[in-house]
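2 proteins. here.
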Amino acid sequence: MTNSKINTSQKFITTESIPTKPPKSHWFEVWQQLKAHKGAIFGSYIFIFIVLGVLIGPIIWHADPTFLPQGRDFINLRDTRPIYTAIWDESAKINWGHPLGTDNLGRDNLARLMYGGRVSIAVGLTAMVLSIILGTLIGVVAGYFRTVDGLLMRLTDLFLALPLLPLILVASLLFREPLSNTFGTEGGIFVLIVTLIGITSWMQTARIVRGDILALKEREFILAARSVGTTPVQLIVRHLLPNVLSPIMVSATLGIATAIITESALSFLGFGFPPDFPTWGRLLNDSVDRMVLYPERVLWPGLMISLTVLCVNYLGDGLRDALDPRIRGR
């Protein structure tokens, strides 16, 4: 009788100790936390909508952003207002074939806004990739190899102390012609702006990665991997980099916003792409002289820049909270 009860109890304990569900993965928990961050979800939806708009929009809206009408067409098409201005101003010059109106040369504002978004977002993404690669490489090398740590960190401090915008303006003047002759006008300016933004925005990523590498390389699993003869390159690639992926992703999202703002500032100051090549910053620059008469020409590119940067920042905040184990459970 006693043995039967013991066996039944042991059977019950064994049955209860068997897990009924597989354990949740780390990335599933990150996704659950990210979904709970309303700002990140809202920002990601708006950012995806903007990206799809500038990519697919020109396929639907066939207007040429660089087309210049001639003769009577030029007189009829120049300086038309958006169609929504007819709600409060019946005397506004409107052309129903141009929903957002035209500029002082008769070019379609909607087409220029979409093509300008392509360039601005492409510059932001490419410059972000370059800065993340540079920052991660310098941060990993400085954190893992003590012999070059001091040199690389003083180099980082030097770049942080430099006035970056004047430096970018001077470099733009010096290298604009050689790169334009090599890659063409638009291609040369694209390479120049991406390179300048990339090599002047890697410092924060390098500092973050270096700090994480310094903490990780003294952990037990790194010491165990080193004791079995794992080479430094294998340690970095297999064990260290996967564990610093979270701050790199957050830094990447914030780097997109910084690159878009820098490109817009360069184009606004006249050091970016040529005047006939639209970007959001160039549209702002072209609209300043007529801002009082046609405020919508400043409003739309400024709104697109602000929305894109705000959405990317919200997404970066959500990723930071989702990837930080100290915040994830709140």
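next one coming up
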Amino acid sequence: MNHLEFIDQLEITNEVPIANTISRDTFYKQYVNKGKPVVIRGMTSSWKALEWNTEYFKSKERGVKIPIKMGKIEEGRKEQMLLSNYIQFLDKYEEDLKNGLTPEMIGYLHDLPFFYMFPEYVSDITPFPKELLPKWYWSDWQDYIQFFMGSTGSLTPLHFDTLLTNNLFFQVVGKKRFILIDGDQKDLCYIRGWRWANIDPTKPDYNKFPKAKGIKKMEVILEPGDILYMPSGMLHQVHGLSHSISFNIDWHTPKTARNGVATLLKGAPLKNIYYNTLLYLGLSLNIPAKRIFPLYKSYLNYVS
């Protein structure tokens, strides 16, 4: 089996609903409060970012090296390089694929606080639908973004977000396939190291992981301009179906922040408790984000 083929053996349940734009009130009542995912379309259609290409990024190079994840994502091994150099590898890889070759997989630009590091790109993603976030995040929403750029065949294994945050995922260039599993099925996924699953939902080994037979999953393919909302604790596996650029924001409500703090009793890393406590204090006691963020911003490197 090559890296672009999938063998799907878990039961597919209901499709992820799709909304053509959405109001803040509907988003929270129908999805956030009920812990249900949704794909939102039509809210980023005017973004300049939807026209991004590799030449655009190379033209804005300013000599800052960034970490590229090498090998398996969950191992966290990184190599520092210029964005323009990484893009050269990407272009060569995609060209080789088009020519029928089977190039060796390259690294993945994964979980980078890109807009915090390169604020000159923020104008490309405006107007931003910040109304989907709690108001506490509105003043500096761009600082919470984590950025992804990768090749056809990139893979992020099945996991849940470490702080049990909600997740707004923005697909900008190319396509990605998400496999989603509700957090209440976590015990069927054979979790290791707090948040990574031992099973591969595209080809589960039922002899080794018999409980996985009970898993029900949802699937969705994101296209440029799509926003995927994933509720707190939802497991997801992500497949790059093409050269892809995307980003997400991990965010809490007071309720999910409180639940995140309570994971101290469930074996979460102590750093998780620290970051969740900061967000809980900000959201619940209305401590301004500008006072919390200097203490929280190290999370943007920790999560990667």
